[in-house]
Amino acid sequence: MKRVCVFCGSSAGNRPVYAEAARATGRLLAERGIGLVYGGGNVGLMGEVADAVLAAGGEVTGVIPRQLMEREVGHQRLTTLEVVGTMHERKARMADLADGFVALPGGYGTLDELCEVLTWSQLGIHAKPCGVLNVDGYFDALLALFDHSVGEGFVRPAYRELVLEAAEPGELLERMAAFQAPSTEKWIRPQDR
User: Fold this and answer.
1) Torsion 101-121-82-8 (CA) sign
2) Residue 52 CB contacts under 8 Å (≥ 6 apart), including other chains
3) Mean pLDDT (whole number) for 3-22
4) HSE on the CB side for 165, CA within 13 Å?
5) Helix (H/G/I), strand (E/B), else coil: 173
6) What pTM was estimated for this model as a whole?
7) 112 half-sphere exposure, CB direction, 13 A CA radius
């Protein structure tokens, strides 16, 4: 993987462990020579992960819609900052630039971005690994919901396997590097529709 897109909160959350995990993720990306693609903000976990990559000498590409430049305080020290027109353009551009996706703790936007790239993977639109960094159990309830969806027949077990998970950034990046994308025929069959 040359670049990983990180989805995360524009808030730092209530506990220091979240910012610590964002910084650790950023440092590790830079140490491994993996560029960061993210939402372009200078606040919350977004700012933490970007600053950590930059401090470690890594490359950071931010993609931010015009209307959020002021609200999220667009980061001005990035390697590249792309300003786009809409949130849809932002997500599509980040997906185009990245070789994989990681969700750190965050709110609705983070969950939206994660679920969208998982859906695209399920549909065979991309074959890139998608993972969650389950910092101190932050994503336990979401992962349980995914399992519940399998049990209730809304998500096939094979699609649940698209969600890679780990509590430490190094372990998650290893799982992502080992990810083998399934063929479209395996995942999308007429009987699955």
Assistant:
1) negative
2) 22, 23, 24, 25, 26, 27, 30
3) 97
4) 17
5) helix
6) 0.93
7) 10
Mean pLDDT of 44-69: 96
Helix (H) or strand (E) segment spanning residue 36? strand 35-38
Domain spanning 3-192, CATH architecture: 3-Layer(aba) Sandwich (3.40)
Looking at residue 73, its pLDDT comes to 81
Which letter does DSSP use for residue 135 in this model? G
Length of the chain: 193
Q: What torsion, rounded to 10 degrees, do the Cα atoms 78, 39, 101, 87 define?
A: -140
Tokens of 159: 């699609």
Q: Among 42, 39, 51, which residue's Cα sits nearest to residue 74?
A: 42
At 186 the pLDDT is 53
The position carrying tokens 């390697």 is 79
The candidate with the shortest Cα–Cα distance to 132, out of 108, 110, 170, 104, is 104
Domain ranges of the chain: 3-192
Judge whether residue 11 has pLDDT over 80: yes
Contact 7, 107 (CB under 8 A): no
**Rounded distance between C-alpha atoms, residue 50 and residue 59, angstroms:** 9
**Tokens 């990810």 sit on residue:** 179
Percent of the chain with pLDDT over 70: 93
For tokens 């551009």, what's the residue?
A: 93
The Cα 158–Cα 150 span in angstroms is 9
CB of 102 closer than 8 Å to CB of 134: no
